[in-house]
Amino acid sequence: MDQGLPGSVVTSGISRNIPDAYLDPSFNPANDRKTGYVTKAILCVPIRSSAPHAVVLGVIQLTNKVSGSDVFEPEDVDVVYKFISLAYPIIFNSQSYSLLCRRGQRPQVGFRDASPSSPLPVTGAISATSSQEEDD
Amino acid sequence: MALHNGWKFSQSDMIRNRYALMIDLIKSMQDEAALPSFVPSIIHHLPKLVDADRCAIYFMDHSRRAFYLMQGEVCALDLACTLLSPTLKLSSCPPPPPHASVCTVRSGKHQGVHGPRASRQCGDLWHIEKHS
After folding, report:
1. pTM score above 0.95
2. Is the ipTM value over 0.90, yes or no?
């Protein structure tokens, strides 16, 4: 896991903005040789919150800037960080949901079912309100 | 002054469009509970935010200390393994979860691989990649 560019970003928890991937020792050019694609600039950002001991959920890797200069600017890094700050709780909740489903503990509150046809789970609070209304 | 104002306007318009796209992406992610549902939309829309050519997302499996990826339009298992670890053997990878749907990329041609065959090749390191 510690090998390669995503591995180094996960281990350090710090994003990397590489102008030329072939000059970076952690870049593995095997993919380029197989596909014929030429990688130049890479922006690799960890998916983590700003909390000091936050768990790194993964890595987002963006390859080759297509407009302006060929390298990713600090503004691009800022945009990706803003996206991750918004997306982190969603990804975290989604992974927790998947984990609970795999363990057979189907979550009843706070999650909507993954299948679009299934209705929202009825929570205890909603059930209690409904029964009160029926009583009235 | 007029040129400067015009440049400022175009810059602010570009930034506004960027953040509008980001908000739309976050909204679409919030509508889904399962990771495979919104990962393709991240891969499709995120490169537009920074004018990147490609986007790849690796997710961590902390229990196995490995990367994985759920599902996507193009998953390159063998490429992911070599990318993350050049010495990794495909046969040594544990099988993917039952809901995993993966495919390999060989000689530039996509070959769909599902279920048991994918399990034999590699399951722990999935790499999703899409051209923007």
Report:
1. no
2. no
